[in-house]
Amino acid sequence: MRKKIVAGNWKMNKTFEEGLKLASEVVNMVKDEVKSDAGIVLCPPFIELHAVSKLVEGSKVALGAQNCHSKASGAFTGEVSVEMLKSVGAGYVILGHSERREYFNESNQFLAEKVNISLQNGLTPIFCCGETLSQREKGIHLDFVKSQLTESLFHLSESDFLKVVIAYEPIWAIGTGVTATTAQAQEMHAIIRDHIKSKYGAKVADATTILYGGSCKPDNAKELFACPDVDGGLIGGASLKARDFVDIVKSF
To answer: What gap in Å lies between CA 134 and CA 8, rounded to an integer?
Structure first.
């Protein structure tokens, strides 16, 4: 049985106090309202990780970071290592988000290094893949997404690959208010799973958690999560409101 996960990516939002208030609200709502065994992950900005880790301790909510560096330590001013993330209680780390790829020129090879060091230190990568509207219109989106997986993940052993969570994010549906149709989401998730099967076999493919990461909201989450190959969501804007985020979790 694949693990169901809803992860909230706060991106560069919320001051320290605002972040603590949001995390506290989520933890309390989850405690009172969520009956499923779905995994719940909050990914606040770096400055809030340690404090949020204290708030989620002992709850159903896990802690994730939004990024990490590919090296263990060193002269990388402004960067954060996986060891630092582990030391403040993070169990997950988002890697390869489309914004990191676009604005910070993160390549598939660079992300492979980040995947490696995350796994070596016991962090679960939430590895993002996805295409632009232009790539979809040109009909190259399937090969593009497959290449992201191949170049960043397919060097892993079977046992390590099974520790990775994949998040498919149609870039054209992030922050635009546009959501992929249920059919579009299911199609891409099925293709991703089939691509994993071609490398690792059906057993590994069937065990891999694949999240949907494009404008998932309380009013469409239930339909999206009902798709056979959609195992939850990587939530952006809706994760900044405790009520919306918890309602998405309850869609299971």
So the answer is: 27
**Is 25 a catalytic site residue?**
no
Residue 24 annotated as lining a ligand binding site: no
Q: 243 lies in which domain range?
A: 5-249
State yes or no: 89 annotated in a binding site. no
Tell me the pLDDT tens digit for each residue of 130-174: 999 889 889 999 999 999 999 999 999 999 999 999 999 998 877
Reply yes or no on whether 169 is catalytic.
Answer: yes
Q: Is 237 labelled as part of a ligand binding site?
A: yes
Q: Is there a binding annotation on residue 9?
A: yes
Q: What is the pLDDT of residues 204-220, one digit of tens each?
A: 999 999 999 988 899 99
CA distances from 185 to 141, 214, 233, 239 (A): 13, 9, 11, 20
7-41 pLDDT tens trace:
999 999 999 999 999 999 999 999 999 999 999 99
The tally of domains found in the chain comes to: 1
- Would you report the helix, strand and coil content of the chain in percent, each value rounded to 5? 50, 15, 35
Q: Which residue of the set 48, 69, 97, 141 is catalytic?
A: 97
Residue 165, domain CATH: 3.20.20.70
Catalytic-role residue among 48, 106, 131, 169: 169
